[in-house]
Amino acid sequence: MTSGVSTLVNLDLTLNRDLGGCAEMWARHLKGMRHLEEVNLAYCALIDKDVEPIAVALSDIQTLVHLNLMGNTALGGCASLWALHLKRMNHLKELLLGGCNLTDVDMKPIAESVSDMPNLSHLDLTCNDALGSCAPLWALHLKRMNHLKKLTLVMCNLVDDDMEHIAESVSDMPNLSHLDLTCNTALGGCASLWALHLKRMNHLKKLTLVLCNLVDDDMEPIAESVSDMPNLIHLDLTCNDALGGCASLWALHLKRMNHLKNLILARCFLTDVDMEPIAESVSDMPNLSHLDLTRNRALGGCASLWALHLKRMNHLKELTLVLCNLTDVDMKPIAESVSDMPNLIHLDLTWNGALGGCASSWAQHLKLMTKHLKKLTLCGLTYEDQEYINASSDLNLTILDFTP
Questions:
Q1: Under a CB-based contact definition with an 8 Å cutoff, are residues 218 and 188 in contact?
Q2: What domains can you pick out in the chain, each with its CATH number?
Q3: Contacts of 193 (CB under 8 A, 6+ apart)
């Protein structure tokens, strides 16, 4: 084997479907790549009998931490034939089994094997639709993997009835800090039926509810449960479109989660009328250090209507307004409000394209904007913009980050 291959760190064989069904013929060559850290065998048409030779070969590569088996759909429904070999790779830290057509009967053999993989910290089960609506049949096995730190159940077709059983099992996984439930859209509009179970997982530090079709009525039961999760510091509600335009109906519940440090409300279709109730509630969340409002494009061009409310959140350390369609006329009201936020360290205004090519109309507000800031991030500016800004007097240029 050439020295180049023997020192390879990342091997990506994605979509080589001819590798499926014949791993006994090629997998043994992997063991010569003794410095591998990542192996990607996604969408390779692997079948149950392929897993053993792959696991045998990779078991001696102690540097290997990441194995991606996503999209090998023939592995579904027969984990009893292959999952036992996973434990041979007990040095893995991350295992991806997304889109493998896994069913409830697969979870027991997978959990049994993973329980003997003490270094595995992340198990990704994304896009295994058949796990939805039947958690009573498989969730009890999750607790066997009690060393996991992150469990990804993205797009698993979960419904309200599944949450009780998942929460019950996760409550016995003391090392689990992050549960990702992204894109389980059936959870939207019925949080009153499932959110009460969240509090059982009171050791979680991060909860991801992105793209879950949440509506205003869901926020009260979620906030009520999260208020009893003292270790939860990060809540991600990105892409819950129905929250936009009606924050007056739900934002008041945010303050119940007063131990949060990071709140992500990216691309929630927020408008100018939403900012006042959000700011009012956040003002009573003393531990919140980062508010992320990325991709709320309706905020652009009308900061005069909402930016004045930012100063109510004067304990924030980081504010993200990326991709918010901000224009030159928005910079003055944002600067005025930010100048009254003495704890704000970082303001991120990247990917607001309309700010490019016209710094002459807004650069004069940077001095006020950076009164307390340690870092202001901008991008998409022209060379002329940067020259204009650099020429500005009385401006601390060291805090400006012109991201490419």
A1: yes
A2: 1-160 (3.80.10.10), 293-404 (3.30.750)
A3: 160, 161
d(CA 303, CA 158): 39
- Interval 77-114: pLDDT, tens: 999 999 999 999 999 999 999 999 999 999 999 999 99
**Residue 168 — very low, low, confident or very high, per pLDDT cuts 50/70/90?**
very high
Q: How many residues does the chain have?
A: 404
**Block residue for tokens 């180049």:** 4
Which structure tokens are listed for 193?
Answer: 């039926």
DSSP code per residue over 286-314: TT--EEE-TT-GGGTT-HHHHGGGGGGGT
| CA-to-CA dists, residue 245 to 55, 299, 366, angstroms | 51, 11, 30
How is residue 194 written in tokens? 């499932």
Tally Cβ neighbours within 10 Å of residue 299: 24
CB 283 within 8 A of CB 254: no
Q: 178 to each of 45, 198, 207, 236, how far by Cα in Å? A: 30, 12, 6, 11
| CA dist 306 → 67, 234, 242, 273 (Å) | 46, 25, 20, 7
Q: How confident is the model at residue 1 (pLDDT cuts 50, 70, 90)?
A: very low
Task: Give every CB contact of residue 391 below 8 A, 6+ residues apart in sequence.
Answer: none
Beta strands in 28-181 (DSSP E): 38-40, 66-68, 94-96, 122-124, 150-152, 178-180
- Rounded to whole angstroms, the Cα distance separating 330 from 149 reads 41
Q: What is the CA radius of gyration of the chain?
A: 24
- What are the beta bridge partners of residue 152? 124, 180
